[in-house]
Amino acid sequence: MRNMSDIIEQYLKQMIAESKNEVVEIKRAQIAEKFDCVPSQLNYVIKTRFTNELGYIVESKRGGGGYIRITKIETHKKADYLEHLLNLIGDGLSQTNAMHIIQSMYDAEVISFREAKIIDTVIARETLMIGLPKRDIVRAQILRNIIEVILYEE
Amino acid sequence: MRNMSDIIEQYLKQMIAESKNEVVEIKRAQIAEKFDCVPSQLNYVIKTRFTNELGYIVESKRGGGGYIRITKIETHKKADYLEHLLNLIGDGLSQTNAMHIIQSMYDAEVISFREAKIIDTVIARETLMIGLPKRDIVRAQILRNIIEVILYEE
DNA sequence: ACAATCTTGACTAATTTTAATCAAATAAGT
DNA sequence: ACTTATTTGATTAAAATTAGTCAAGATTGT
C-alpha cells in the first residue's frame, strides 16, 4: 500500500466489510494514534474516499464520547433492489422479460456492460436449445441464480 | 546500449517480464536517481516507448506515495487463448470440464472473479434443470456463446 | 548541414501530510 | 441551573511530496 491515506481507507473498508450492517464507528483520535498520524488526516480520508457519491453516509458527534460513523448504503439499496427482482421472477420467464430485467440491472449499476451481455447471451432462446414451456422455466432458474450470486457476494 | 532512454526502456521491460502480471510500478524520482537522470526523462521514455499503440497502459498518481504503473496488455494472446477454448469445447460438456475451463479463464484474467461465479452458477446441473444427455449439450452451447461474447467485444 | 531523437531543467498540477484554529458536546465545579 | 473546563470532531490553510508539461539545448544518424 502506497500511503497513509490509502492504508487508512483500506482499514476502514475492511471494518465495514467485517461489520454486520455495513457500518463502522470510530473515534478519530484513536485511529490517528493507531496509524501514527494527525487526527485531521481521518477527515481528509473520509472526505476524499467515503463520499456520498461513492455510497457512504458519514455521521459524527463531537465532545466527550464523540465518534465518526461511516455507513455504506449502496449495498443495502442494491440488496433491496435485487430482492425485488427475485420476487418479480416467477416460475417461468420469457426472453423479453428477462432482457428487461437485465437492462434494469445494468441501469441500476448492479452489473457491468459485459456482464449484461454475457447474461443476455445465456438466456437467449438460441442458446438454451430447449422447447417451451420448459425453456422459460430454465431461464427463470438461471436468472434467479445469477441474481443470488450477485446478492450474496462478499 | 547507446543512450539513457534505451537503458531505462530495457530496464522497465525487464521488470515487466519478471513480474507476475505483466505490470511494473515505479516511483519516478527513485528510478531517475538510480539512473542518475532528471525525473522528467522517465516521462519521455514512457511517452515514446510505452504507448497505447504498443500495447501498454500507463497509470499514475501524484502526491505522497505517488507512482507510475505500466501494464502490458496482450490482446492477441487473449484472443488466441479464447479461440483455443472454443476448439476445446465439443458438442457436449460436463459440469466438471466446464468448471475447469472457467477456472482457467479466471486464471488467465479473461474474466473477473464475479463473472466466474456467475458462469459457474449458470452451468451448474442444479440450474439447468434438464436431463442428460441434453444437459451437456446445452452447457456446451452456453459456454461457447459466453466465450464468443468476450472474444468479440469492442 | 539537417533532421530526428535525446537530455535537461524550470514551471505546473495533483495529492497527501501536517498544523493551527474553530465549533460542538460533554463533564465538572459552584 | 449556570458557568467553566475539557474532550473531541470540523475546517482551513500551509507545507511537503510526488508526477506532468514544455521548450531549449545537446547529441546522434544520414
Structural account:
Chains A, B: It comes from Phocicoccus schoeneichii. Two copies of one chain form a homodimer. Helix content of chain A is 58%, strand content 10%. With 154 residues, chain A is mainly alpha-helical. Chain A has two domains: 4-72, Phenylalanyl-tRNA Synthetase, Chain B, domain 1, CATH 3.30.56; 75-151, Transcriptional repressor of class III stress genes, C-terminal domain (Non-ribosomal Peptide Synthetase Peptidyl Carrier Protein, Chain A). In chain A, strands 1-3-2 form a three-stranded antiparallel β-sheet. The A-B interface holds A 2-6, 114-115, 117-119, 121-122, 124, 127-130, 134, 137-138, 141-142, 145-146, 148-150, 153 and B 61, 63-67, 114-115, 117-119, 121-122, 124, 127-130, 134, 137-138, 141-142, 145-146, 148-150, 153. The structure holds a DNA duplex (30 and 30 nucleotides).
Looking at this protein, list some descriptive labels.
homodimer; 154 residues; mainly alpha; Phenylalanyl-tRNA Synthetase, Chain B, domain 1; Non-ribosomal Peptide Synthetase Peptidyl Carrier Protein, Chain A; 7 helices; elongated; DNA-binding; repressor (chains A, B); CtsR_N_sf (chains A, B)
